[in-house]
Amino acid sequence: MKILNLYAGIGGNRKLWGDEHEITAVESEQYIADTYRKLYPSDTIVVGDAHQYLLDHMEEFDFIWSSPPCPTHSRMVTAKRGWGIKEYPDMKLYQEIIYLQKFCKATWAVENVIPYYTPLVQPTATIDRHHFWGNFCIPELDIEKRAFSVTDAPKETLATSLGIKLPEGTKDQRKLLRNAVRPEVGLHILNQITYQEGEE
Length: 200
What we know:
- By secondary structure, this protein is an alpha/beta fold.
- It has a single domain (2-199), classed as 3-Layer(aba) Sandwich (Rossmann fold), CATH 3.40.50.
- The protein contains seven helices and seven strands.
- It has a seven-stranded mixed sheet with strand order 3-2-1-4-5-7-6, with helices on both faces.
């Protein structure tokens, strides 16, 4: 398949996908894209705006994964207000869901945290700490609950739990690892597509 991995980060979702697919990853931060490139050298890396890239290139792919930034949707927003930080939810999340629902002929999934509010569009599935929206069946996944807080865990604990060893000297390691989707969740989603396509 030709796969588009938007807001790729360090590719937690992509880790177990293997190299048999043609994967294009879009990441806005150069240093994060450089880290992704070291972890997945066979992928095509685009440094740019994932939101715009989806508009410009949606028709070129068989499967689209999008993980728009989650901080403004997270339950941590209520804590931030206590610290005097006020921010609107980033509506790019729902712009992409609605756009994909109406215009995308490919298979797609959008991932984000369980928000502090009732989702504006009903998710297709909830796995671990994440909601998923998609145009295919996403069954539940029996995944072991982490024995630590992702927010507070040291980078070594996060790296071990994800099975991701970041290159020496990578900055913001804890933040990058904290934001990564668990690889087994990414594989579960991809497996549903290949399984359901095989059934047709």
